[in-house]
Amino acid sequence: MAGTDETHEYDVVVLGAGPTGENVADRARANGLSAVIVESELVGGECSYWACMPSKAMLRPVTARADARRVPGVPRAIDEPLDAAAIFAHRDGFASHWKDDGQVQWLESAGIDLVRGHARLDGPRRVVVDGGTDRARVLTARHAVAVCTGSRAKLPGLPGLAEARPWTSREATSAGSVPPRLAVVGGGVVGVEMATAWQALGSRVTLLVRGGGLLPKMEPFAGELVEQALTEAGATVRTGASVTGVRRPEPDGPVTITLDGGEEIVADEVLFATGRAPRTDDLGLETVGLEPGSWLEVDDTCRVTAVSGDWLYACGDVNARALLTHQGKYQARITGAVIAARARGAAVQGEPWGAHAATADTAAVPQVVFTDPEVASVGLTAEAAERAGHRVRAVDYDLSSVAGAALYADGYRGRARMVVDLDREVLLGVTFVGAAVGELLHSASVAVAGEVPIDRLWHAVPAYPTVSEVWLRLLETYRG
Amino acid sequence: MAGTDETHEYDVVVLGAGPTGENVADRARANGLSAVIVESELVGGECSYWACMPSKAMLRPVTARADARRVPGVPRAIDEPLDAAAIFAHRDGFASHWKDDGQVQWLESAGIDLVRGHARLDGPRRVVVDGGTDRARVLTARHAVAVCTGSRAKLPGLPGLAEARPWTSREATSAGSVPPRLAVVGGGVVGVEMATAWQALGSRVTLLVRGGGLLPKMEPFAGELVEQALTEAGATVRTGASVTGVRRPEPDGPVTITLDGGEEIVADEVLFATGRAPRTDDLGLETVGLEPGSWLEVDDTCRVTAVSGDWLYACGDVNARALLTHQGKYQARITGAVIAARARGAAVQGEPWGAHAATADTAAVPQVVFTDPEVASVGLTAEAAERAGHRVRAVDYDLSSVAGAALYADGYRGRARMVVDLDREVLLGVTFVGAAVGELLHSASVAVAGEVPIDRLWHAVPAYPTVSEVWLRLLETYRG
Predict the structure, then answer these.
(1) Which of A77, A406, A446 sits opposite B443 (nearest CB)?
(2) One-character DSSP codes across B446-460
(3) CATH number of the domain encompassing residue A324
(4) Residue B63 included in any domain
(5) If contacts are CB pairs under 8 Å, which of residues 288-347 in chain B contact chain A?
(6) Which residues, other chains included, contact B124 with Cβ-Cβ below 8 Å and sequence gap of 6+?
(7) Global pTM?
(8) Does one domain contain both B32 and B145?
(9) What's the pLDDT tens digit per position in A343-369?
(10) B-contacting residues in A 128-157 (Cβ below 8 Å)
């Protein structure tokens, strides 16, 4: 680095100003440490502009209308198509029109410095920011560097894919017109949410899934119910469909997707929702002995285990523990606190469920899929719990048999499962599928993370008649 | 009693076939005891025909439409009035057209005998049923009699009231046409729910409340937000309005309500939602030393404390612990279990939160008010907690500042409060007001009944972006 570089020292240097990075910096500041955050794109990160916020702004009208269609007395014009332009305008507002002034203002109010540019590690505790000017800026960290650079869409290595200009989650959450035909590749959360949104906005959606079903990391019935609903909404779901090629012969023409059997599918746009890759390929990881482009393995305090000296942390998607905004923020709160504790020589409370351990990352990760029906899960699936060596029983209940669900919507369809640890008589995981279960999930998160014994859950009375009464039914079913 | 009376002996005799009585009998049966249930009206009780079920069937279209109106892209015809006839037909279905065949069938399938008629105690363990025939039927209880006769609407002693044919909750939940003008007397749960329903169905509602605000047993902001919403919906809310007289001069004409200042209000119907009275006035209570018409005081196992011998129980509204269907069912499960335990000489687990103690009745009663916005609360209000001698802090948060709430509805309005026990660092109560909080409540019920420490609640991560994230905000606000 040239001698003319500006050098600034901070207690904590954070790479990446998404929700995770913001929360690490905020918790460091709240503990009296100085903090700087480096961002090469928009302050606010993927979640604010190309993920949670715009996608939920597009999906909420879909579920609100679907719910209203399922009750009597509502004017039948509710059955008419959604107004896509109105939804795009709404979505653009929730994405702050892809401007980060509000977030920058928040950083200022929190006393967090912002450096715009591309950050690379340059040995321990040292970060060089290439801001596009002649002079690099050097940031040194008295206590810690936290890598919170997140992830990007991972595209498969298909010939001609780049030339075909596929959508990733970014285009799928920011496009401003409705493609008449949309092919979606991938049956995970992004795939099913975007298939739901665009089908409702007016596209004819074809969802291409390599495996045998949707949402493969969740309980099997979740993907089954979502597949059924997508099909009824008019989408085509193709399981066991491997994409072998994509081409767009004319720049403004349609795209042709080839499946492994040779079949071709023609669409106006194609979304690849085929997983995520860590944004660690150009971070100077090699200067501290780590491999560029790798996920960063951390312990429960989010310290990068392969680097000695308690100074390098990785939070959020980059550590691969749970690629979810709320889980990144959770890790960030813990990381900010543990950096501060180590800085002042205080004891680290790293025992399970301690103040400095992100125990929920392995035991109680919640997730809501904002499809219609919604899917909400926390903790382990029955299969994952068995694989982890627990002695379990999966207790299922059909949500349509719950009075509160029948009142919520005519023809309510849904299902619930709780996974009981038979040795400890606590819950290891819960999954709900159905309308309105997104807000019901937190009851399960409290039960799982709180390790509330089943005997005590009997005293948590669900209000009648709500969907929540499924809790009583699950407990009764377990008792037998 | 005449010597020709039929006498039958059962392990358990239950008076009243509402959800509470059904559950006592069911739990007794499940524990191997024989059970009979006596009902003078419809099997299924108030809840099934004149309370929860029909009222929620009338209210769900109101909130579903209100929610859909608050998102973009939904056809604007959603703003047109609700179709009252369609809603009445739907409601009638949920009230099983006021026929109890389905419930009778359930009793049969559960092996519970049913006796139709009016039951009166005739000394310890003895019940005489007057079935309208010459011969009374006598039921003797080997182990227990459970009084589950519920409550009825309590009307004030106003001159001319009976002649004016006021509505009670029964008429308000079963009427089949919309009165152009409806006066509602009482600002409790029944009053605000029925004011919300009928205003949305097309009545011009005037809500007359003696006190200073609505929902006086809940946190003050609950009533304030509901009052604001009712007013915006077009209803008139009059607080500090004491009704001194009611008259309906012409049988088919309007009703005139006089207030204590002399002012007169004219309406087509008037609903009195002015509290409940126990249905214990004609139960033969005097034959076991109890006062007819009184609420029946019970211990945590629901045993009537004033009667010796462990044979008389009272569950549900009659014991005045918590006049809510779900709480009656909770008591019933516990009562059925404790009757069985005592019958077989097993130990009674009556310690707080034990299997035979209805501890939630005092510590964790949940309630959802199905207005728009919904009100959901569990446990103690801040005021009640202080009155009970706890050292507490009330932590408030404005729900409109939660991203998931803003996404749920444009202009979302709501508020949350958690009441922290500062000595034990657990929650004593939680109240949410806002759209979709009805299903969020159970998270608070698990936290309160589970006595989950605040330190652990930090590990129960709310999914982003849901309304549930208010939990994170509350915890952050508490931490300061």
Answers:
(1) A446
(2) HHHHTT--HHHHTTS
(3) 3.50.50.60
(4) no
(5) 324-327, 329-330, 333
(6) B288, B307, B309, B311, B312
(7) 0.97
(8) yes
(9) 999 999 999 999 999 999 999 999 999
(10) none
